[in-house]
Amino acid sequence: MFRKLLAFLFFLSLFVFSNPLSITAQKLTTHKYVGTKVCGKCHKSAKQGKQYKIWKESIHAQAYEVLKTPMADKYSKEMGYGDKAVESKHCLSCHTSGLEVDAKFLGPKFKVEDGVQCETCHGAGNDYKSIKIMKNRELAMKNGLVNVFNNTEEFCRNCHNPESPTFAGFNFKEMWAKIEHPVMHRKKK
After folding, report:
1. Residue 128: what are its φ and ψ, rounded to 5°?
2. Along the 189 residues of the chain, how does pLDDT read in single tens digits?
3. What is the phi/psi pair of residue 79, to 5°?
């Protein structure tokens, strides 16, 4: 019985520590978060698909601000999360990035207030942000880039699901079309 339990715990730990879709992965990072302004320095040109602009104009960029509204506070109270949504870990876990990350892994330009940002999906960027590393996908992944590309819908459903008090369905293809931000020279034809 003990051996079965030990084997189960071992395989469970492999899943948790290797699953890029795990929200827990943010807490366990050994890479530093740099913030959207650092990402935006390179990801703003037409050649890069104007990725920063797409994010900045998306609802993800406003995700934290939504928590400051009376409606968000109402939902937070109704769900038993507390009086202020902006102070609730339940709400913040999907409306921000870096929530439970040790402060030593948050760079000076990183702001929780930037909402659902580059590093929410792509991983803490300090160690893969250089052009030399970014040009090599495998090397970038070894340096913290999270590969959500094969599991994008599943990753999105970590937050866009019936457990959210405002969930009204989630059409992945429709929503993805609004926020997709491929690098133009890599875009599939």
Report:
1. -120, 5
2. 545 433 333 333 333 333 333 444 455 578 999 999 999 999 999 988 899 999 999 999 999 999 999 999 999 999 999 999 999 999 999 999 998 899 999 999 999 999 999 999 999 999 999 999 999 999 999 999 998 777 889 989 999 999 998 899 999 999 999 888 887 655 554
3. -85, -5
Residues 6+ apart with CB under 8 A from 116: 60, 61, 63, 94, 95, 96, 97, 159
For residue 54 the two structure tokens come to: 């797409």
Residue 143 φ/ψ region, left for φ over 0, alpha for ψ in the -120 to 50 degree band, beta for the rest: alpha
DSSP state of 19: -
Residue in 102, 110, 111, 104 with CA at minimum distance from that of residue 129: 110
Residues linked to residue 81 through DSSP beta bridges, in sequence order: none
Q: Which two tokens stand for residue 36?
A: 């959207």
Neighbours of 81 (CB within 10 A): 18
Following DSSP, what letter does each residue of 66-101 receive, concatenated? HTTSHHHHHHHHHTTS-S-GGG-HHHHHHH-SSTTS
Task: In whole angstroms, give the CA distance from residue 93 to residue 111.
Answer: 14
Q: Say how far apart CA 21 and CA 157 lie, in whole Å.
A: 10
